[in-house]
Write a structure and sequence with these properties.
The complex is a heterodimer of chains A (about 290) and B (about 250). By secondary structure, chain A is an all-alpha fold. Chain A has helices at about 1-30, 35-55, 60-80, 90-110, 135-160, 160-170, 175-180, 185-210, 215-230, 235-255, 260-275; strands spanning about 125-130, 135. In chain A, helix 1 (about 1-30) packs parallel to helix 5 (about 135-160) and helix 9 packs across helix 10. The longest helix of chain B has 16 residues, at about 125-140. Classes of the chains: A mainly alpha (about 290), B alpha/beta (about 250).
Amino acid sequence: MFLQQMINGLMLGSAYSLIAIGYTLIFGVLSLLHFAHGEVFMMGAFFGLYLVLLFKVNVYVALFGSMVITAILGILVERVAVRPISKEFHLAPLLSTVGVTIILQDAATKIFGGEQVGFPETIKIVNYPIGNVTVTSVQMLILATSLFLMLVLHLFVNRTRLGTAMRAAAESGRTASLLGVNINGVVILTFGVASALAGAAGVLVGLAFNAISPFMGVEMALKSFAIMLLGGLGNITGAMVGGLILGIVEVLSVAYLASSYRDAFAFGVMVMILIFRPSGLFGAKLHGD
Amino acid sequence: MALLEINEVTKSFGGFNALYRVSFAVEERRIHAVIGPNGAGKTTLFNCVTGMLDNEGGTIKFEGHVLNGMKPHKRTELGIGRTFQNIRLFGSMTVLENVMLGRHCRTNAGILKSFLRPPFCELAEERATREAALELLEFMELAEKLHLRASALPYGQQRRLEIARALATKPKLLLLDEPAAGMNQNEIIDLDRHIKEVCDRGITVVLIEHHMSLVMEISDIVTVLNFGEKIAEGKPSEIRENRQVIEAYLGEEE
């Protein structure tokens, strides 16, 4: 039973991690709280759903397609609502992303309708009993996909030329630009990567809970923001671990305590951690190593 | 044609002229020192050349290209490298990564190549970058510190790492902002040798420095700024004798 809950928690948490990592990447490079990131996640779920409904593609194609479209959406948001706004007024870009949140929610309601919808039975749910634990094929897909994406991202950020430029820009944009790094390029790349991860999370959460709606991003954005604080601002490893912790705490509190207090327990644990480690689990340093 | 031409450059901060109609030219393959009392506008001048600040009046030309309004990373691509008065290394990165980042504008592996390469394999370009970085670290005598975090290096070595990182951008012109600040006498002797070696590689050096013994020893030509204006220019021996310069420095050491 306990092991079963841990697996469920890990699955939920890995989806949280994907969104929180995107938040963290954008915060790292731009020092901007990208409020509309939750809505990019929501759009990702719808894109995946409609790829399946309209083009009858399988779930892998839907996942990949949704990542590509959300990456484009994210880059568009940066171009239209972030870049033209002067960074001298810290609240202005922030407010602008709040505006994008509302626009995307309204657009989704208009286009896709306000009802909760779910994926058709595209992947047959197969139960794999492992000992006395049961893992469904959807759970396997979610866990495998999130872990794979996080591994790829980790290698990208730490081992490649563009990843190094991204870390440099996060540490000091001005110095990086004097060493020949095109900061605008890095910002576009960051929005693209972060949004693609959110899109993937959208499809995965859609598959897991069959509850896709224009408002599913609101709670997600709040939670992933909290996860970012928990992990340590701008710390990618922190966002991964923080997401998993939140997922597990949520699932365990539903299983052993009371389901209506799910979020209260989750955020309670978070507050406790922050009391003892105010700079988050992975400290004040800006980056995972 | 001079490598760098600074023509009537003016920059003011809220009515205070940090630079006022400053003109001088930097000839290729020279070591050109810019000196002057604190607040003379030396660092402001570097900031205008590298694009951290935009000059209000005048033009700055590099190899005949007008730099006004050009983004900093484009100027780096043209061949202008710099170090900073207050060290600005990427503290959370390793020594090697700092230098490899300097090669960014000379390499071009894009997003597709970065994502699609087999994991744990190095692209040919990455290997070349690593080797070039290693060579520079060897040159700056930091080769055994490769995998340390930059912030863990002692001060003098951080200064040398900044030079290695700036050299990684393959500059034709290297701007050094007080490279000897905070160094002890032995470190300054090493620095002296390193700067000469950089110049031997065909790189033109512009140097802001307060250590007069170093300036007088290595410079081919010295430009003196005071309160944002150029007051003298000449060979070190001439500058040493110049009355205006001596007056500007009166009350300071030297």
